[in-house]
Amino acid sequence: MAFPTSTYRLQFRNGMTFDRAIELVPYLKKLGISHLYASPIFTATSGSTHGYDVTNANEIDPTIGGREGFDKLSATLKKADLGLILDIVPNHMAASLENPWWRSIIEWGEDSLYASHFDVDWTRSLTLPFLGDDFDAVISDLSITADAQAGCLALTYYDSRYPLNPKTYASVLDGIDLPIAKKIATIAAHASPWDANAFHDGIRAALSTGTDAGFSPADTMALASALEKFSNDPNNLLKIRDLQPWRLTSWRTAANNLSYRRFFEITGLAGLRVEEESVFDDAHRLVLELVRGGIVDGLRIDHVDGLADPKTYLDKLRSKIGPDTFLIIEKILGEGETVAADWPIAGTTGYEFISELTDVMIDNAGLKTLYHAYDRLRGRPTHVTSEVRDAKGLMFDVNFAGEVSTLLRLATDIRAAEGGDMIAPETVRTALREILLTFPVYRTYGTADGLPEADRKLLTEVLETVREGGRAEAEALAFIERLITGDVAKIVSDKATTFRIRLQQLSGPLTAKSIEDTLFFRINPLLALNEVGSEPFMRDHDLKHFHAAMQARRETQPNGLSCSSTHDTKRGEDARARLLALTEAPDVFAEAVNRWRGLNAAAIHSLPDGAAPEPALEWMLYQALAGVWPPELTIKDADGIAALSNRFLTFVEKALREAKLHTNWGEPNEAYETAVADYVHALFGNRIFLSDFVATMQPFWWAGAVNGITQTLIKLTAPGIPDIYQGSETLDLSLVDPDNRREPDFETLAKQLSAATHLPVTDEDWLNGAVKQQVIARALRLRQDKPTLFSQGRYIPLTGAGKRGRNVISFARADEQDAVLLIAPRLVLGAFAEHPSTAALDGWDETSLTLQPGLADRRYRDLFSGRVIAAGEKLSVAEALSGQHFTLLVAEG
After folding, report:
1. Longest dimension (CA), the chain
2. Partners of 275 in the beta sheet?
3. Does residue 247 contact residue 260 with C-beta atoms inside 8 Å?
4. Residue 683: which residues within 8 A CB-CB, separation 6 or more?
5. 865-882 residue pLDDT tens
6. What is the 3-state secondary structure (H, E, C) of 312-336?
């Protein structure tokens, strides 16, 4: 397999089309990228901004250029010798009328050819929770109409038209004495899901005036009038509703009463059953065509943990795409968790790498001080374990209540079939709740054969913890344990398998929504830790931990992606790099927050349930602002301030609702949200505050610029394939999506790269990202020149010694022929306290590195300056850097 040497993630939609991507190919080539890594390109719902709401997995979205545009892009990439990796979505599709498969199951119910494609409980009506209120409450907004475009009768609710089951047409049309009604009724009487196209064509023809098969405009108008009269009687609508294979309900009921499995808690995304051979084939037809045709070189599997059986899916996919296709998965790894060695993949998309990078940039003592300051402001200690439990409890009790109810019904059925003494449902529910709240990773990987040995061990540890907690009854825990491990009577083995798989498909989303989309917006001592793939737990962050993680990475997934920003990260990589510097001077930040709170105290609102914003939220707002503030923005720039304010307000609304403390997406607390928004407006309008804020944060921004270069160099040289998210090759200070999905200014990026004849070293270049872009371009070309070194070479930690030994991060990549040494600064905030310039980074005298045999007594060329130095057993950091502040030394000969 020819692995990528680097990837560049491009977000299609939002203005990015295949034609525009073609224009970027020369830039990507010059940057040193080997593979374009494309977001989902298949047809999605109208207006989709991300493409994960697929409506047709076998069509390339016309809105971004369709198949013709895609083929042009592919040909352009081939000509430039660039590969292509596609992000595919096998675990869900849009629960949308635009999706022909979903529309079919609405229309035909369990008789649909696609009834088994989605994870639907067909013992019940298909629930469609898309009404603004209960059916009875909105009945005046509903009507039966003849949809000439779709070729059907439909229940219309504003712009949505839900097709009626053809078997129920007679109940609508029998009382309408019109030839056109009789014609439609006759067509419907002979309708079959096996020939649905002919049925729809027949109805279209009948409703299409001016054709030989159609009726006159007067006929269609008469039918419309008759249907309107029919709809004016609520009893008629209730009668027709009760005849359908679906039930339209309020969107508020989705969490509690849903007959299909959702993707996470998104009602508009329905789970696919790709574990079924026919569904797999239908969902992958075009993808496989593109891979087998040599058009696509690699695939990224979205949310692999959402699949019923990830390993079997990956094995099946691998058998169909062959051994040479690059295959990676999106998966969150818990602390100490690794990808199963028998999965046929190159690795993950690299979220865990983000967490590992923080070890290099954090001052442990300062992090503890920062936590203490946050706790004082908050008025209570932060117990992250308890906070995780609370967030998971909320997800279990509210957001995923319907999925939990499904599991409990299954458990009750199994218990009854086994003939054992019944356990009260609430007792089983409590036991299940405790297990899910205690689970330390996303999921286990049990199948019809039971639970793998490693997962059995993990389950045993979880159950021991739960029993020690004393919150669940032993009998219920033992019962659930048997269901998970498969230790059940043969008569219920199939149901136990279903329980096991559904539980596993629930535990991942429950964990993700609890931590990434709840906890990360509740606990804010250091926002840089609140990142996908990480958790805000206090632990030792140091170079020893980082080096161990990189050595393990080299063994477990040397060809997995190493990312630092993605479309799902909570803030840009350079914003995190800035915020990590807060651990070097936590008292400065804490004192500043107290001062800023005083300067903005008049903007605090007093609400019945307390102050808004509360002190802990103020802390978060100031820290988030510190991360996003553009280095070139001055407080005199009114337009720039206004633009940043608008972006920040969008972020704040999302942060408040995701935290789910005072407001949420389902039931927004307008008074609270308005109060916080007013406070934010006041911040941006307070010149005294802004002046103090910018002056105070300047040293942190300088240190952040250095951190940003250091983490970039690590990503480019450590085990793994560096993944560059669009625009993050320069300064990435973005906020959570949708902010991080804005299109970069590619024209400026291309000009900046082309204009550079040497590595930029001015202070402005450090702060605006020009240095970063050049570092990436040169290092990526080095990776292309020495692919084996970076994919297979050893990872050798190098330890700094002497006066500033703790301020350097260094390691080598080496094989029998080649060697590369990285030397970069860390924990450098103190250098900028009095001198806000990179010149303050000098002073590496009396600091050295000890080189091992094979690295010592060699000549090295500096990748960025071209200087050649001779290294003995000891390498002087001052000599290696020579005022440049970082280096990649490439062995000669």
Report:
1. 100
2. none
3. no
4. 600, 603, 621, 625, 689, 690
5. 999 999 999 999 999 998
6. HHHHHHHHHHCCCCEEEECCCCCCC
For residue 212, name the pLDDT band (cuts at 50, 70, 90): low
Note the pLDDT tens digit of each residue in 129-144.
Answer: 999 999 999 999 999 9
- Is residue 825 a contact partner of residue 883, using CB atoms and an 8 Å limit? no
- How far apart are the C-alpha atoms of 12 and 247, rounded to whole Å? 35
Q: 3-class DSSP state for residue 565? A: coil
Q: Comparing C-alpha atoms, which of 820, 810, 811, 767 is closest to residue 790?
A: 820
**d(Cα 663, Cα 667) in Å, to the nearest integer?**
7
Conformational region of residue 317, where left means phi above 0, alpha means psi within -120 to 50, and beta covers everything else: alpha
**Residue-wise pLDDT tens digits, 91-131:** 999 999 999 999 999 999 999 999 999 999 999 999 999 99
On the question of pLDDT at 468 being above 70, the answer is yes
Structure tokens at 345: 């993949």
Angle in degrees, CA 813, 811, 867, rounded to 5: 80
Q: 521 vs 535, which has greater pLDDT?
A: 521
Q: Residue 719: enclosing H or E segment and its boundaries? A: none
Q: CB of 164 within 8 A of CB of 146?
A: no
Residue with tokens 């070139």: 632
Contacts 24+ apart (CB under 8 A), 213-219: 215/179, 215/180, 215/183, 219/178, 219/179, 219/180
- For residue 264, the 8-state DSSP code is T
DSSP conformation letters of 432-448: HHHHHHH--SS----BT
CB 388 within 8 A of CB 434: no
- Residue 214 predicted with pLDDT over 80: no
Mind listing the pLDDT tens digit for each residue in 284-316? 999 999 999 999 999 999 999 999 999 999 999
- pLDDT at site 355: 94
Q: What is the mean pLDDT of residues 146-168?
A: 97
pLDDT, one tens digit per residue, over 60-77 is 999 999 999 999 999 999
Residues 805, 849 contacting (CB under 8 angstroms)? no
CB atoms inside a 10 Å sphere around CB 797: 16
Tokens of 525: 């001592």
**Calpha distance 844→847 (Å, rounded):** 6
pLDDT at 335: 84
Predicted pLDDT at 256: 86
* C-alpha separations of 158 from 132, 140, 166, 305, 816 in Å: 11, 11, 22, 36, 69
State which H helix or E strand residue 368 sits in. helix 364-378
What distance in Å separates the CA atoms of residue 209 and residue 204, rounded to the nearest whole number? 10
Q: Which residue has the higher pLDDT, 214 or 500?
A: 500
Are the C-beta atoms of residues 612 and 672 closer than 8 Å to each other?
Answer: yes
DSSP H helices, 543-614, are 543-556, 573-580, 586-599
d(CA 287, CA 429): 41
Q: How far apart are CA 578 and CA 588, in angstroms?
A: 14
Instruction: Determine the Cα–Cα distance for residues 383 and 394; give it in Å rounded to an integer.
Output: 17
Q: Is the dihedral of CA 729, 730, 735, 739 positive or negative?
A: negative
Q: In the predicted model, what is the mean pLDDT of residues 372-377?
A: 97
**pTM summary value:** 0.96
681 touches 644 (CB < 8 A):
no
What token pair was written down for 140? Answer: 């005046």
Q: To the nearest whole percent, how much of the chain has pLDDT over 70?
A: 99
C-alpha to C-alpha distance for 658 and 394, rounded to whole angstroms: 12
579 close to 370: Cβ distance less than 8 angstroms: no
Q: How far apart are CA 503 and CA 18, in angstroms?
A: 40
Q: How far apart are CA 390 and CA 383, in angstroms?
A: 11
**How many Cα atoms are found within 13 Å in the side-chain-facing hemisphere of 100?**
13
Closest CA to 258 of 130, 94, 415: 130
Residue 410 has a pLDDT of 95
What's the CA gap between 605 and 608, in Å, rounded?
A: 10
